[in-house]
Amino acid sequence: MPSIKLVAIILLLSLIPMNQIELPSENTTIKVAVYNYPDEFNKRQVLMALRYTWKNDNEIFSFSYDLVNLSDVLKGKLKKFDVLIIASSAKSYLVDGQNKKWKEEIRKFVRNGGGFLGICGGAIAASRGFKDNFTAFHRLVNRGVLRIADVYVNDDLLQEWQYLFRIGRPSLSKPDDLKGPFSAFPSLNTTVLPSSIIPVSGFRCFGWAGGPGMYAISGNVKPLLIYNEEPMQTKPINFWLFWNGEWIKLRKIKTDIKNSLAAVSTTYGKGRVVIYGVHPEYPFVFKNGTIKEHIGRMIPMGPKQMVYNYIGYLHNFSYNIWIVRRSIAWAAGLDEKELPPCDETSVWILDPDPCGAIYILGKVKKLYGKIGTPSLIFGKPSLRFLTSRNAKMIEIYLDGEILNVNVSLMEEGYADLYMAKLPEICNGFHILKVRVYDEKGNFAEGITSFYLIKDHNESSCNEQNNYSENDKFH
Known about the structure:
- The protein is α+β, with helices and mostly antiparallel strands.
- It has two domains: 26-338, Rossmann fold (3-Layer(aba) Sandwich); 347-465, Immunoglobulin-like.
- The chain has helices spanning 4-14, 40-50, 70-74, 91-94, 100-111, 121-126, 136-144, 162-165, 231-234, 321-331, 462-465; strands at residues 26-35, 52-56, 59-68, 83-86, 115-119, 151-154, 182-184, 187-192, 202-207, 213-216, 222-227, 238-243, 246-252, 261-268, 271-276, 286-296, 305-314, 347-351, 357-360, 363-366, 375-378, 382-387, 393-398, 401-402, 407-412, 416-421, 428-437, 443-453.
- It has a 17-stranded mixed sheet that branches.
- The longest helix has 12 residues, at 100-111.
């Protein structure tokens, strides 16, 4: 017979409403392989989307990630992951895709149930390439593509690619320019075809950097977005010639992507595939703007030439980031009810710079290193970061321990700019993490690392905090 104590516990529990009983939660982690590529700024945008945790009923979902490269793919390491992301990497199909084993390893991964997300160059990599082999460039692309999505692409070097080549990069706005007007890649308007990935309807703008229009060639392709505008008509740029001491306009650069597909989902074998010609990860999405052509540089210290910038005012920071998250989760095989919410929650650390900088008495020298490059701080460190406009609570961690510090809202704009004064920290290597919660308890994280040098006579505290530069930068 049950004991009196057990009966009393059962009776007590029966009096408590079920919604007040906290049941054990199940955790699901989606393991993501991010194909490494040189554009660190764009890579940060992809990783910002991945540092996210969401709740669904009694289950907690999150992403983990590793950067992978050509040799990792050739060694069969994709089998450790649930999803492969190839973002803004033309190298993936122009160089790596010329290796037959590289292509077969990725096809095998997806065919056996792995997911694939391709963005811009990654969309071309997943496609069947160009329908016609008119040029050597077309033939090179067609030899390197994976053919895991039944679409042809339209993305020509002397047409759409010019919007990537001719952008005035040194004159692009920095993330902490909050009020505008802003200078960035243009945004294009699309029609949304409601789906489990993008469960909204109507029109939506996305950043665009000369990415492909796509054409479905089988019924296995589900359109997600359609281009509503022709860049050469709504955002025209031109070929120019420097002649006899002045710049002469030659002709308008042609594009022909209007009414083609800007995003699709499909399957390949047992795997799910999502590809975008636009950039859902790009945080600078314009409400309106105009093209400005001017004499400038395409790269810092490069030759002066005619370049363009798109100038206007932005939607909220991380306007489309939830689309990236839902795309990854769908590709990983989650059911619609398990997908991340249509939620903009995100954080972008400005200082200490996650790509490395040198801070001396308040002055900053950017290193523009790889993500995870520790900054070097001489003096007292401070923390600055941007959050999405829906942030309800902020937590700051130093070397794994939560800090009790004052966080000040410094400025509002397309994002919220915060600053935190950190406590006294000993010399050595440190990792800072910022966690931002929405009203439902879902949260995003940002992470950065630095070496602190306050006094050369002060000993290092690395032995105390158990962190070193060899710790995994996640």
